[in-house]
Amino acid sequence: MGGTEPSRDVENGPTRSAGRPGNRWGLPAAGLAVLLAVLLAWNWPEPIDALIDQARVALAGNDPETAATIIDGVLDRQPGSVQALVLAGRIAAARRRFEEAVGFYDRVPDDDSDQARLARCGAGRILLDDLKQMSAAEKRFRQAALRHPGDRIANERLSFLLGVASRNWESIPFRIATIASPPTSREQSSLYRLNLILLALGDDTLDDESLLETFRTAVPDDPAPLIALARLAVANREPSRARQLLQTAVDSDPGLIEAWVRLGQLFDDSSADDDFLNWNGRLPPAVDRHPGTWVIRGAFAAEQQSHRVAARCYWEALLRDPNHQAANYQLGRMLIRLERVEQATPFLERARSLQRYINLVKASGTAEQLREAAEMAESLGLIWEAYGWASLAGDHGSQRDWSGRARARLKSRLSDLSNTRSSSAVGPAAELSLSGYPLPRWKPGDRTRQRSPLARLAASRVVFRNVATSAGLKFRYVNGGDPVKDGIRAIRETTGGGVAALDYDVDGWPDLLLAQGSTWPPPRNRPGRKDLDRLYRNPGDGRLEDVTLQAGLVEDRYSQGVAVGDFNNDGFPDLYIGNINANRLYMNNGDGTFSDVTQQSGTGGRHWTTSCLVADLNGDTLPDLYAVNYLGGDAMTRVCRGSSGGRPCTPHDFPAAQDQVYVNLGDGRFRNVTDEWGLNAAGGNGLGIVAADFDGSGHLSLFIANDQAPNFFYVNRASQRGTGPEFSEQALRRGLALNGEGLTEACMGIAVTDVDADGLLDLFVTNFFGESNTLYRQQPGLLFIDGTGSARLRDPGLRLLGFGTQPLDGELDGAPDLIVTNGHIENFQGRFENYRMRPQYFRNSGDGRFVEPPAESLGRYFQGRFLGRGMARLDWNRDGLEEVAISHLDAPAALLQNVTESAGHFLVVRLRGIQSDRDAIGTTVTLKTAERSTSLQLTAGDGYLSSNQRQLTFGLGSRQQVEQLEVRWPSGLIQRFQDPPVDVELLLVEGRSRAVPLPRNP
User: How many angstroms separate the first and last alpha carbons of the chain?
Assistant: First the structure.
């Protein structure tokens, strides 16, 4: 029957012909034939192939029980039938007998056959999707991919599994394997695109905490989910839990390379030197293959000023991954530090190009953007990715012909590549040998950075009280909508307004100006309009008076930032207000009123200005104007719709607006010198600005915080005063363009101060949700390093979105603290805990490390949640304790009075320039006591949209005597004042030998 062998019973049965002797039953021949036929029908089995087909039909007919009965019979007869085992696995899965299904699949021998591939992928799918066993699933998919490198299912599942597990470096070959076969359906196209995006983004993962917890619950001792859970713990500000999870992972499976790398990152970020050295000393050799290991070592070496060791580590990272953005960026910076500037340039440029590529990938929605991404990838040597983006571009009719040509050209180059992003010959590291530089030789127990204890800072002595209501500050920003009820609909509604502290009537008491928004477009000449910028006079009696109209300030445009400065050097502070569409310059008349001199001064412009500043940029003693501009195109009017209703657009949806700079001609007029002075870098999306003398040269340089674009750092290299500045944009080479990982961030607020008392100005920059804020520590040579982790500032900001920030010495102990106002730009489905956000205060230990005290210890305001935006620093009651005023989108403005008890002694310094500009921006004052020296500098810009009170406050702690004040004026003059009094405000006038105590009576 069909060539199938008869059963043993049939083979041993009667074989003699009927009618011959021995026919014991005496049956005729015909009857015997019939009997034999019946016996054969009962005992001769159906062919195995036919039974397998019957089982398949039953399964397809949604009858898995019948299918199981049939396939069980087949396996009884042929236990090793590969086809039957694979089908048995499918049938068991249909019956939801998942362990049984995996058992059937696992009985299939692991060879190169197609049935083995199906068995491995079938078992992997069940283990991942149904049994939630990550490690077991990974093992099966890896077996399939090893035998069948081009299998789409195995590669896609490994890409997903390793992505969810935060093991992106391991996922690279599998993601690339998926690119080899362009998609043929919409579903495949989406997954194809996702793999391309994740390849470009590098460390971004498929975060799904609920799924990870499901995996962990299913197999509590499986270490596979722990890396991703640790990553989420870091994001949720739980570093101790993250460390425990990662330690458990490496103890359970020392082969989890990514777990080792992330554990080292935790130790380096936390400045736990002993833990870091122990980690480094017990790494399995395989971990050295990961480029991240070398980047972490490089960062540790850089913190110790071991620049040659750091450079060698970053170079080793690039030998393993030429496309590691942080390694390119940091090696370029180390080479500059080692005075190998020419060799540094290619690494910095590659870091910049990689960032441009990432930005293109994030915005790759149109056919043109897909083509641009493909071309950019090819220029970087990322041939697989170029092929992938070109394939996706082919889905659009306008790029179909180009896509075909590009794919044909690129395909000829793919055969020479393994499943890596690029050849090892790509990038500048292949052309530079740093093998002569030393490798790290650290040992557990080595003494490295000396740190002061932080335990005393856990319980804050700093306390603030919001006195806005009692003081009469009644102001609420209008963004044109209802940010609480409706969320934010257009990008113009996200930025909010700034705050300025100024003494407009020169009575010694700081007044307040708050920028106001409007509906859109702003109504003009409406009688009795209330949504105007507001000026509040401070008479010194604990109350603020709204004097807006009396002062002649009828600023009715959609205002953003406010800058204060005496542009005509007459002794009365003037105002430059940044608006959407046209700015305004108000001259202080000296009689309590202002005049709008925008038209005659030529400083209005037609841009979206966010922050701005008034400062003498060319050293002629006449303050100039800088307008930081944000976005162009239809950014002011476009409304982007998303799943949550009105959803703000992103900066990538619009062209960047060019900043504008105006030189003061001294006769009330200004001239645009943006291009002439070299302040014309493109693509900024600017939000914040500070001007300071960062290098002691006597010239003001400029730092611009850009949104989702590299920051700008304009270094002023004027050959001599009065000849015109020569600005050079050097953020990339100086270490300020990107964060320490070589990535752009959505930068907004800026606090400029010397956090670690080394005499050099540092920059603290607030960033977007999920990015953490960034502390750029200045090093000798006008270089900056990302010191966020070592300052313990990385984790506290990860789950918040920072806007305004300022440095202030809350308890007057001589160490500048930091205050941040937070708030999201989108209300995600009404979850206010992710929309309104709590403010933060960070206490400085004295060595540049910070601790965030409990909110309840700081005062009620810090226990609230807000959509915070602009912030300015001042001492509104002149008691020596610094305070802040904050503008919100969702609540009235706050005036946080510092009510800290048992604060230290202080000395407040106000400056007046004579040979320098009257505001004396860039002046550095050094206070010397018997124990230490402390330097402060008067800066301008003051970060996000705001302007601080123009004075310097020195906290003295318990010290009651100051030996000397040394003043370095922008003109180059150095003055010294001996034995100044304490707990007073002093006026220092350039060139005059006597410090003048200022009366503090109203």
Answer: 116
Predicted local distance difference test score (pLDDT) of residue 1: 40
The arithmetic mean of pLDDT across residues 805-813, rounded, is 96
Give 130's DSSP letter. Answer: I
Better-predicted residue by pLDDT, 739 or 181: 739
Which amino acid type is present at position 91?
Answer: I
Task: Give the span between the Cα atoms of 22 and 263, in whole angstroms.
Answer: 87
Judged by average pLDDT, the poorest of 146-150, 454-458, 973-977 is 454-458
Task: Assign 3-state DSSP to the chain and report helix, strand, coil percentages, each to 5.
Answer: 35, 20, 45
Gap between the Cα atoms of 948 and 885, Å rounded: 10
Label residue 186 by pLDDT band (50, 70, 90): confident
Q: Rounded to whole angstroms, how far apart are CA atoms 766 and 822?
A: 9
CB 557 within 8 A of CB 584: yes
The residue-averaged pLDDT of 307-324 equals: 96
Burial of 97 (0-12, 13-18, 19+ CB in 10 A): middle
Nearest to 310, CA basis, from 299, 321, 319: 299
Strand 984-989 and strand 905-912: pairing?
parallel
State the pLDDT confidence band at 723, using cuts at 50, 70 and 90: low
Q: What is the mean pLDDT of the chain?
A: 89
- Region class of 850: left (phi > 0), else alpha (psi between -120 and 50), else beta: beta
Give the C-alpha separation, 732 to 267, whole Å. 27
pLDDT at 288: 96
CA dist 594 → 546, 585, 586 (Å): 15, 10, 6
Q: What is the pLDDT of residue 304?
A: 85
Cα distances (angstroms) measured from residue 121 to each of 81, 91, 608, 751: 18, 15, 55, 54
Token reading at 88: 């048995």
Query: What letter represents residue 999's amino acid?
Result: P
Cα 34 from Cα 621, distance rounded (Å): 124
The gap from C-alpha 462 to its chain's centroid, in whole angstroms, comes to 29
Q: The pTM is what? A: 0.82
- What's the average model confidence in pLDDT over 206-216? 86
Q: What angle do CA 311, 317, 319 make, to 5 degrees?
A: 105
**pLDDT value, residue 829:** 58
Q: Scanning the structure block, which residue is given the tokens 């609909």?
A: 489
For residue 331, give every residue at least 6 positions away whose Cβ sits within 8 Å of its Cβ, in sequence order, or none: 298, 311, 314, 315, 318, 344, 347, 429
Q: In this prediction, what percent of the chain has a pLDDT beyond 70? A: 90
Q: How far apart are CA 830 and CA 55, in angstroms?
A: 52
Q: Where are the beta strands (DSSP E) in 899-963?
A: 905-912, 924-928, 933-937, 940-944, 952-957
pLDDT of residue 917: 96
- Find, among 457, 450, 446, the residue nearest to 271 by Cα: 450
What are the residue ranges spanned by the domains of the chain?
A: 8-43, 48-126, 467-908, 909-997
- For residue 324, give both structure tokens: 């590691």
Edge-to-edge strand list for the sheet holding 984-989: 952-957, 905-912, 984-989, 996-997
Specify the range with the lowest mean pLDDT, choosing from 182-196, 720-734, 954-968. Answer: 720-734
Pick the CATH number of 467-908 from 3.10.560.10, 2.130.10.10, 3.40.50.300, 1.10.1200.10: 2.130.10.10
Q: Which CATH class is domain 48-126?
A: mainly alpha
The phi and psi torsions of 597 (rounded to 5 degrees) equal -115, 25
Of the chain, the percentage scoring pLDDT greater than 90 comes to 71
Q: What pLDDT score was predicted for residue 613?
A: 97
Residue-level pLDDT at 292: 95
Q: Strands (DSSP E) along 530-659, which ranges?
A: 534-537, 545-546, 559-565, 574-579, 584-588, 594-596, 609-615, 624-629, 640-642, 645-647
Rg (CA), the chain: 35
Q: H helices of 574-717, where?
A: 598-601
